[in-house]
TrEMBL record:
This is RING-Gid-type domain-containing protein. It comes from the Eukaryota. CDD domains: dRING_Rmd5p-like. It comes from Phaseolus vulgaris. Its main location: cytoplasm.
């Protein structure tokens, strides 16, 4: 969605508001000065034989205020501002559909699964009290299946943020084989953080003992990293002024903490990205297409809510594609094991059921719907993702 027009309109309204505010303040200040001047004249020392004529002072003040015309000036600037605000509101209503309920469709949801998704959303975020409340109110004790694992993950992450690596080291040690199977070097990264801490806060001897005990096993598979860490021993207690000062950057703690969370989720068989957040984000991105479709169907007097399948694809960004999919360009059906994608000799791809409908039977020749080429079912080759 192009929001440049909205931004430009907003900037114009903001500029008009500042101008209106400045002008209003100027008028108020001008009126205030005239009143203060009149009061000063009335309260100024004067000869008892010739007292100040207060009536004439007030008459003159009234004349000056009328000459300024504060109401007219304030009404004029506010009128211009209100006109700009009105135009901006109309633009928002034109570009941003205020009634997104038009895209709503009645869908049968499994309530138990929805409750589990919401509870796990809170557990994943570390909001365990909220997750427990959802579970208790919904009466879904099975939704707590991942609670203890996410609790462990957040305890480890919390400790790392306080520069305590012991829980993380315990976890990577217990899951060493599984981490190696996915090609992870997380254990080395955590030991590297701990080594730098020992080097800064302990003695060179302490750091050497730590390196021999915990870093030596990684020397053969991390030939570039190991010499650099050994070079740090020359700068014990003054690493910040060494060629290896970059190792003290907080970014290493942040990146290692995030990597631990990612790999923790991987070993759990869960995605690192929160599924509920991803689903909401995907819905927001697809919403403009759905709203447009609903409006078009309403104009054609077609029932949007009764549709079993969308007549047009809803395009989402690559960040929402998690596995290979194929949607038949003829039937709009998504390929499956029962209805696999088939490659035609002309290199166009259709789903098997579409090919069978085009050919009428397995031996009859049919024409590709996208080019003049002809083929039979036996000429088509099934594709595998």
């Amino acid at each position: 969605m192009d929001l440049s027009s909205i931004k430009d309109a907003f900037d114009r309204v903001a500029k008009k508001q500042k101008l209106s505010s400045s002008k209003s303040q100027e008028v108020v200040d001008q009126v205030g000065r005239e009143i203060e001047q009149a009061l000063a004249t009335i309260h100024s020392p004067h000869d008892l034989s010739s007292p100040v004529d207060q009536k004439s002072v007030l008459t003159e003040l009234k004349f000056k205020i009328n000459a300024i015309g504060p109401l007219q000036q304030l009404e004029g600037s506010n009128k211009e501002l209100n006109a700009s605000l009105s135009k901006y509101q109309k633009l928002l209503e034109k570009v941003l559909n205020p009634d997104i309920s038009k895209a709503y469709r009645n869908v049968d949801f499994d309530t138990r699964i929805i409750n589990q998704i919401i509870a796990n959303h809170f557990y994943r975020q570390g909001l365990f009290d909220l997750g427990d409340s959802i579970v208790n109110e919904a009466g879904e004790p099975d939704a707590t299946a991942l609670r203890s694992q996410f609790l462990e993950m957040h305890q480890i992450i919390g400790a790392m943020r306080e520069r305590n690596l012991q829980p993380a080291l315990t976890w990577v040690s217990a899951n060493r084989e599984k981490l190696l199977q996915i090609g992870s070097n997380l254990e080395l990264k955590i030991h590297r953080l701990q080594f730098v801490e020992v080097l800064q806060n302990g003695t060179r001897a302490d750091a050497l003992i730590y390196a021999r005990t915990y870093l030596t096993p990684f020397a053969s598979v991390n030939k570039d990293e190991f010499p650099k860490l050994m070079g740090c021993l020359l700068y014990a207690g003054r690493l910040e002024s060494s060629p290896y000062s970059e190792l003290m950057s907080p970014i290493h703690w942040e990146m290692t903490t995030e990597e631990l969370a990612r790999q923790f989720c991987t070993l759990l068989g869960q995605s690192y990205e929160n599924p509920l957040s991803v689903a909401v984000a995907a819905g927001v991105e697809g919403l403009p297409t759905l709203l447009k479709l609903a409006n078009v169907m309403a104009a054609k007097k077609q029932e949007w809510l009764e549709m079993k399948q969308l007549p047009v694809p809803v395009e989402l960004g690559k960040e929402f594609q998690f596995h290979s999919i194929f949607v038949c360009p003829v039937s709009r059906d998504q390929a499956s094991e029962e209805n696999p994608p088939m490659l035609l000799p002309c290199l166009h791809v259709l789903c098997k059921q579409s090919i069978m409908k085009l050919s009428k039977n397995s031996t009859r020749t049919f024409k590709c719907p996208y080019c003049p080429a002809e083929a039979t079912v036996s000429h088509c080759r099934q594709l595998h993702f």
